[in-house]
Specification:
With about 375 residues, this protein is an alpha+beta fold. It is about 50% helix and about 10% strand. It holds the Pfam family zf-C2H2.
Length: about 375
């Protein structure tokens, strides 16, 4: 009975007895696992602290003008240039300015001859991988981005996004000088230069400045002589697709622009306006040297070269130079042998359009 009583008293003890025999101690492996778990917990806790501190840091560097937040003070500093318009990094080759040095570095590649991405279909090379991939899709005709409104398909998601704005009427890019807004950021940039007078794109060959990179690109073809757009009816070549489109109206019978004075019709509006000035005798472009007046600013500009002796259009084959670009074009055909004006009645071709017209009249005189 005493034994039982002793046992009961022992079990009522609030702290259980600790038996310290060697064979009941925790295995060494288990202790190691517990230690490793403790270390992992410490690492996770430290990671959480870093993550939290980063979030706090983001909240600390906030733009007071638009509310955008940045992880670092330097990122906010670069962002503030967007509001101030400051572009401290200048390209020494074309004068274009950039907000960050990294943007300038990327831009400088344009001036280098390096084009590492070569198309396996046509051999055309590209500076940027994205441009190369976009180009290759034109060979494969992969247009996997389809507009759900009209069914038009596009090569890239970006092209589709821009197209969708035609349907939505969205123009998210607003001019900071007037009330105009634009669907594309590039169009906004080009527009804003009309307010600022800025011409950030400079030709390295003649120093002429342009408001848009595309305008500079077209201008460079004047120096290189490249004319990639061909008329399939007369063989005449053009620097831009828009110039070719205007030219094609000369071949069509459609002449929608009619002179209200004499009824003469024209394929292009500018030609109609030019003609109407001959009726009105509106010669509002006057030469300050001799008083001679002209219907067009372009005609006055060409006339002024008589006084200045300027001949800006130089032949790339000999030393001759010309006041009018058209005269240079005709002259250079003496060197190249090019005859872009073809007779549709026979196989003859000519260097001048006037010579072709004279020749065509011979065909009609034979018919008469």
């Amino acid at each position: 009975m005493e034994f039982i009583k002793e046992e009961i008293e022992d079990t009522s003890d609030p702290e259980p007895p600790r038996i310290k025999h060697e064979d009941t101690e925790e295995p060494t492996g288990w202790i190691e696992v517990k230690r490793q778990r403790h270390e992992v917990n410490e690492v996770e806790e430290e990671h959480y602290k870093i993550k939290t501190s980063r979030k706090k840091a983001k909240q600390l560097h906030t733009c007071s003008q638009c509310g955008k937040s940045y992880a670092g003070a330097s990122s906010l500093s670069y962002h503030l240039h967007v509001h101030s318009g400051e572009k401290p990094f200048n390209c020494d080759q074309c004068g274009k300015k950039f907000i960050t040095s990294s943007q300038l570095k990327i831009h400088l590649i344009i001036h280098s001859d390096e084009k590492p991405h070569v198309c396996s279909y046509c051999g055309k090379s590209f500076l940027w991988l994205s441009s190369y991939k976009h180009h290759q899709k034109t060979h494969n005709d992969v247009r996997d981005h389809v507009c759900c409104e009209c069914g038009n398909s596009f090569i890239t998601a970006g092209d589709l996004k821009l197209h969708r704005r035609i349907h939505t009427g969205e123009k998210p890019h607003k001019c900071s000088y007037c009330d105009k807004s634009f669907a594309q950021s590039g169009n906004l940039k080009a527009h804003e230069t009309t307010h600022t007078g800025e011409k950030p794109y400079y030709c390295t060959q003649c120093g002429k400045g342009f408001t848009a990179a595309s305008s500079l690109s077209y201008h460079l073809r004047v120096h290189s002589g490249e004319k990639p757009f061909n008329c399939d009816q007369c063989g005449k070549k053009f620097i831009t697709s828009s110039s070719l489109k205007k030219h094609l109206t000369d071949h069509s019978d459609e002449k929608p622009h009619v002179c209200s004075y004499c009824g003469k019709s024209f394929s292009q509006l500018k030609h109609c306006k030019q003609h109407q000035k001959t009726h009105n005798e509106v010669r509002d472009h006057v030469c300050c040297e001799c008083g001679k007046s002209f219907t067009k600013a372009g005609s006055l500009k060409q006339h002024r070269m008589i006084h200045t002796g300027e001949k800006p259009h130089k032949c790339s084959y000999c030393n001759k130079s010309f006041t009018v670009s058209g005269h240079l074009k005709v002259h250079e055909r003496v060197h190249t042998g090019e005859k872009p004006y073809h007779c549709t009645q026979c196989e003859k071709s000519f260097t001048k359009s006037a010579a072709l017209l004279t020749h065509i009249k011979k065909h009609f005189s034979v018919l008469e």
